[in-house]
Amino acid sequence: MSTPPPPSGYDQDVYYAPGWQPAAARTEPLAFAAIPTGLLLGPVGVGVGAAALARIRRNGTRGVGLAWAGIALGLATTLTAIAVTVALLLGGAATRALPADVSAPQDAHARQLVLGNCLADLPDDGPVTTVRVVPCAEPHEAQVVARTDFSADSLWPGQGDVESRVSRVCVPAVLVDDVDPAGIELSVWTPSEESWTEGDRTGLCLAATPVLTEGSLID
Question: pTM of this prediction?
């Protein structure tokens, strides 16, 4: 009859008092470090967690759960940072002013429009986001003919006051002398309360012609 081998951690030639247990393996220090590193430094935490797993396998130490938690936190932090960066870049692109006369047709956010921009067509009444901007030498339906900028630190004055102020500059007098104002439709575009909170402080006056036209309506 053979004697079964002693449990792991025991030496069969050593006497152990009743209740004695072998010492638990120590926790890998890198596993502890992976969590704060992953939370604060993102991809660095992923690397620290991976290194901790390798050392745990090699040395028989503990901390697999901590290492994986550090890797998960590192990935989450990295993805969040990427999402924020992309959002900032897209937000900046959506508010970067266009040249007064673009060199080629392009889609743009309404907040990018400046005095002189020509639009392929005038959007319907209501909230406007994306517009098609074209060189003024090409056929187009509308043009930005006046602009009003509110102070960056001013408080929201109310929709009525905003529209009233922009309307003061949206008059036929802004058009060149050889344009018949009777055939021109002037439209006021103003910030909404929501876009105001996002930094929109520009009011525009657009002139639309009854048929597609070429050239500029302003000097």
Answer: 0.58
